[in-house]
Automatic annotation (TrEMBL), chain A:
It holds the Pfam family SBP_bac_1. InterPro entries: Bact_solute-bd_prot1 (IPR050490), SBP (IPR006059), SBP_1_CS (IPR006061), TAT_signal (IPR006311). Gene3D superfamilies: Periplasmic binding protein-like II. The keyword Signal applies. Belongs to the bacterial solute-binding protein 1 family. PROSITE patterns: PROKAR_LIPOPROTEIN, SBP_BACTERIAL_1, TAT. It comes from the Bacteria. Keywords: Signal, Transport. This is Sugar ABC transporter substrate-binding protein.
Automatic annotation (TrEMBL), chain B:
Residues 98-293 form the ABC transmembrane type-1 domain. This is Carbohydrate ABC transporter permease. The keyword Transferase does not apply. InterPro entries: MetI-like (IPR000515), MetI-like_sf (IPR035906). Belongs to the binding-protein-dependent transport system permease family.
Length: 456, 308
């Protein structure tokens, strides 16, 4: 664990170096390749039109795609079958942070940059601001308004630009182990107060069982603040403000502090083998998590088959209809990528056109409204969930995502220090509110060092 | 038979030979110490426990893994299924990773050992201006961890267009300052000047002398250095992690990590049982290398500790 942490910091540092260097490097590399007097990169992108994209598909060529999302394998096969002259080289260059480091390094080194890269929503602003990824507005992405659900669509916007096409989304819902809930006579909580009451009832009835786990998770915390209507991050170009004392954050910390103080949260890190174990044996009886979770339960928690169910995310007010996004990623086109027209053709195929179908069939949760409203999608019965029409619940959540959320342009770094700051609330007497303040201060200090203007 | 080091040049010998010298001090009259026994047993348990855990858990299915006590067997004995699945998963990419690792070890560790032998011998047996400076550089290089050099090396290699190729792993592996230092100190004592001089008098060229006369004398040290390099290259993780993007060139370490990472992503498949079985398979060749080479190695450790 210690090694992992240290490596994460090291990667963070490497990312920092390449981020700053990338910001100035990209302007001189495009100045070098374009003719003198040309405007830099955006102008080069603007030259690509719909006709160019068609032409690129006809003439063919090869592109490299860096992604770890498993259903893309099928998409690539289908795409190559449809456009036989195009060769798509799908590379899993690492997951999340590892891939971002590799991408930043490649951008900085100016060689080995892929044509398409998978970038999670929380990380996209960082790449957009460094101009490491291209503004797809120039390639025609602006016409896709209304194609995607509002949450992911706003997540790929940074300022006036569109820096990726949403590939999947993670509107949140409550996943719970019905067998455990029935055994201890728990109602499915509709509000967070009911959730806290159920947490206590369950843990009192069985000291080994918890309603959910949380050992400090930046993605979960920000999503919860998002649902509570909080807007702690204000970003305007390179002017950044962070305020974890605002009402939305306080709503969340007040509730969660009660759960932490009562030791009602399983002290288990998400995605660890302990976590999978707990989800299978019923000691972790619930998860408030993104809509992509069914596939993970099916493959990683086989012991839970027939026991798990999905319900709407608990609300802050009874009868409320507010959710948030948790996770999810986009496909972006690195500015230094060699074949933008073909890359965009693939992007559109995988996120808007036929590719979406293949991905949904493979278990991915789409970000396109057409797919989400498709009766075939909504009426699909999940044997793992005892035949429940899971997608109905999840698709409804997708339409209720609270608007106006934004991440920091250095969220990758900020998340990497979450456990050293806010995470202390889970292991010591520090309160979550104080922990978040420490996270805020550390993030702001970093932002200032990186040359961002800090709004007090 | 005296067990002390020679008086002449004593301090120099001890300092230079430090890592190789093991002085076996038999406790007089075979007296046993309870404290020592307990401490040794503790260390033994501490070092063997992870291995035992690994061996036990490689016999479990994914469900058994998550549903049973970690240090005992689950009901199902799935070791052979797991091994078969490990080799078959992902179109048999494990085999490819195994071959990649072997390539990096043979070319990288083998090459590094040869270079260390040549360099160490040269520095020990030839006097030339700047030897002290070289010594300082080598000692300094020993102190720099490979991880710290990984990012600059990456930038240099990407400028040369070598990233994402096997060269990016092999070339940095060829550099082994510690191995060079070991060979240097070893060669200082293991190859007597007199033999070299008589070889020269008989008209043997320097390279011929090295390969025919010195190399056999250096064998124990060579094996030690080879083992160090093999272990380092076999376990190399950070360098391939940043150098390689194409899973087709991954060594086992990075490949297994990528399998483990699958469990951490939306829609990814959790294959903990394969990661554990793969890890067990990964250490088997290392254990074999140690068992095969240990007697050479042991004689190397003892060499020079006794003045005859």
């Amino acid at each position: 664990m210690a090694i992992t942490r240290r490596r994460a910091l090291l990667l963070g540092a490497a990312l920092t170096v390449s981020l700053t260097a990338g910001a100035c490097g990209s302007s001189d590399s495009s100045g070098g390749s374009g003719s003198a007097g040309d405007a830099a990169a955006p102008a080069a992108s603007a030259a690509v039109s719909g006709a160019d994209i068609e032409k690129a598909l006809d003439t063919g060529g090869s592109i490299t795609v860096w992604a770890w999302e498993p259903t893309l394998k099928q998409v690539v096969e289908d795409f190559q079958a449809k456009y036989p002259k195009v060769k798509v080289n799908l590379v899993n260059a690492g997951t999340g942070n590892d891939q971002y480091t590799a991408l930043q390094n490649a951008v900085k080194a100016g060689s080995g940059v892929p044509d398409v890269a998978q970038v999670e929503y929380y990380a996209l602003p960082q790449f957009a601001l460094a101009k490491s990824v291209a503004d797809l507005g120039a390639l025609g992405a602006g016409t896709l308004d209304g194609t995607f659900t509002p949450g992911p669509w706003s997540s790929v916007h940074v300022g006036d630009g569109i820096y990726g096409l949403p590939m999947d989304s993670g509107p949140m819902a409550l996943f719970y182990n019905k067998e455990v809930f029935d055994k201890y006579d728990l109602e499915v909580p509709a509000t967070w107060d009911e959730f806290a009451a159920a947490a206590e009832k369950l843990h009192r009835a069985n000291p080994k069982a918890y309603i959910t786990n949380d050992a400090g998770d930046a993605g979960f915390t920000t999503s919860m603040i998002w649902q509570a209507g909080g807007k702690p991050y204000t970003v305007d170009g390179t002017t950044v403000g962070i305020d974890f004392t605002e009402p939305g954050t306080r709503k969340f910390t007040a509730l969660w502090q009660k759960l932490i103080d009562g030791k009602l949260l399983a002290p288990v890190t998400s995605w660890s083998d302990e976590w999978y174990k707990g989800l299978g044996d019923g000691t972790i009886a619930g998860l408030v998590i993104g809509a992509w979770m069914p596939a993970n339960l099916e493959s990683g928690v086989k012991a839970g088959e027939g026991k798990w169910q999905v319900a709407p995310m608990p609300q802050w007010e009874a009868g409320g209809r507010a959710t948030a996004e948790n996770g999810g990623s986009s496909l972006a086109i690195p500015e230094a990528g060699p074949n933008k027209a073909l890359a965009y053709a693939f992007l559109k195929y995988a996120t808007v056109d036929e590719g979406v179908r293949a991905r949904v069939d493979g278990g991915a949760f789409p970000a396109t409204t057409a797919q989400l409203q498709d009766p075939r999608f909504q009426d699909k019965e999940f044997p793992y969930f005892g035949g429940q029409k899971v997608n109905k619940v999840l698709a409804e959540s997708a339409s209720q995502v609270v608007g106006g959320w934004s991440y920091l342009p250095f969220q990758v770094y900020a998340n990497s220090i979450f456990n050293d700051t806010a995470g202390k609330a889970y292991t010591s007497s520090t309160t979550l509110q104080d922990g978040l303040k420490a996270w805020q201060d550390a993030s702001l200090t970093y932002g200032e060092e990186q040359g961002f203007t800090i709004k007090q | 038979m005296a067990t002390s080091t020679p008086t002449a040049g004593r301090s120099k010998t001890i300092a230079a030979r430090g890592p190789l010298v093991v002085r076996r001090r038999r406790s007089p009259r075979g007296r046993r110490s309870a404290t020592l026994t307990v401490l040794t047993a503790l260390v033994l348990v501490y070092t063997l426990l992870p291995l035992v855990w690994l061996a036990i858990n490689a016999t479990k299915t994914q469900e058994g893994l998550l549903g049973s006590f970690g240090l005992w067997f689950a009901g199902d004995f799935a070791l052979f299924d797991n091994i078969a699945a490990t080799f078959a998963y992902g179109d048999g990419i494990f085999v490819r990773w195994l071959l990649n690792t072997l390539l990096y070890v043979v070319a990288g560790a083998g090459g590094a050992t040869l270079l260390a032998a040549l360099g160490g011998y040269g520095l020990a047996k030839f006097d030339f201006p700047g030897r002290k400076a070289v010594f300082a550089v080598v000692i300094g290089a020993v102190a720099v961890p490979g991880t710290a050099l990984a990012v600059p090396t990456f930038l240099m290699f990407s400028k040369m267009g070598l990233t994402d190729t096997p060269w990016a792993i092999i070339i940095p592996s060829l550099v082994s300052p510690f191995g060079l230092y070991l060979m240097w100190t070893f060669a200082t004592d293991a190859v007597p000047e007199e033999i070299l001089e008589s070889a020269r008098v008989d008209g043997s060229g320097e390279f011929r002398t090295f390969f025919r006369i010195s190399l056999p004398l250096l064998a124990p040290g060579l094996v030690t250095v080879l083992l160090f390099n093999v272990v380092a290259t076999w376990n190399n993780y950070f360098l391939p992690l940043i150098m390689l993007k194409d899973p087709g060139w991954y060594p086992l370490t990075v490949g297994l990590k990528s399998w483990n990472q699958q469990a951490l992503t939306a829609g990814g498949e959790a294959v903990f049982n394969l990661v554990i079985t793969g890890s067990l398979l990964t250490i088997v060749p290392l254990i074999a290398a140690f068992l095969l080479l240990q007697r050479y190695w042991q004689s190397g450790l003892a060499a020079g500790s006794v003045k005859e």
